[in-house]
Amino acid sequence: MSQLLNYKLEGEGHTIVLIHGLFGNLDNLGVLARELKKEYQVLSVDLRNHGRSFHSDEINYSSMAEDVRLVLEHLQINAFTLIGHSMGGKVAIKLADIERERTQNLIVLDMSPVAYTSRKHDNVLAGLHAVMEGKPTSRSSALQAMARHIEMDGVRQFLSKSLYNNDGVFSWRFNVLAVEENYWNILGWQDIETLSTPTLFVKGGESDYLLAEHQTHIQKQFSNVKAHVIANAGHWLHAEKPNEVLRAVTKFIQSK
Description:
Blueprint: E1 7-10, E2 15-19, H1 30-36, E3 41-45, H2 61-74, E4 80-85, H3 87-98, E5 103-109, H4 122-134, H5 139-147, H6 153-160, E6 163-166, E7 169-172, H7 176-181, H8 183-187, E8 199-204, H9 215-221, E9 225-230, H10 237-240, H11 242-254
Parallel strand pairs: 2-3, 2-4, 4-5, 5-8, 8-9
Antiparallel strand pairs: 1-3, 6-7
């Protein structure tokens, strides 16, 4: 029997599935969930090795997409819109590929369906290890340990949402070692067969995850695709410009 991901289900109506990115959890897209659940049923999940979901040595997009599919099956949800940010965007694309009939819309937040070739998280991983090795007894000392490696306070605050008090020692909910072992799988990508599902790529105007040079890869894999740029936003576009992202998302869903 496969393990079921931890999930949260709110609201009613057409189901929108929210899928977080690397080192995140189901609360990361909460700013979208809070508004969307007023008109839709919103399913938020903790991906494997994240949040309160199970840990596994295996991390790849086929297995992560299958995990989410099993939750949809468990809840008997037969038609849905997928919204994924960053790594969660790739999970959403893979799930749309597996569930072509049931995916009504696909929205990818600041991620390209390409294999990235440069490491982007070495400072983050060093900060996570500093916490694991330091065995901090308070959240503030965990943040101090991270600060030696992670310059941006916003990144430290984001990561700290996955700290918990484990018998007096602050520990990570996500599986740091499995992420390291599978890091190139996470950066990687296997092209999908051309998908005709209505798809929207939303780019943070200042982010380097979704670039003009990726356009040919996108057009090869998606035949019904639009793009929207959120000006003055980076990779965390939904946190920086929630209203603009929400507007782009709802306009796209309602235009069908």
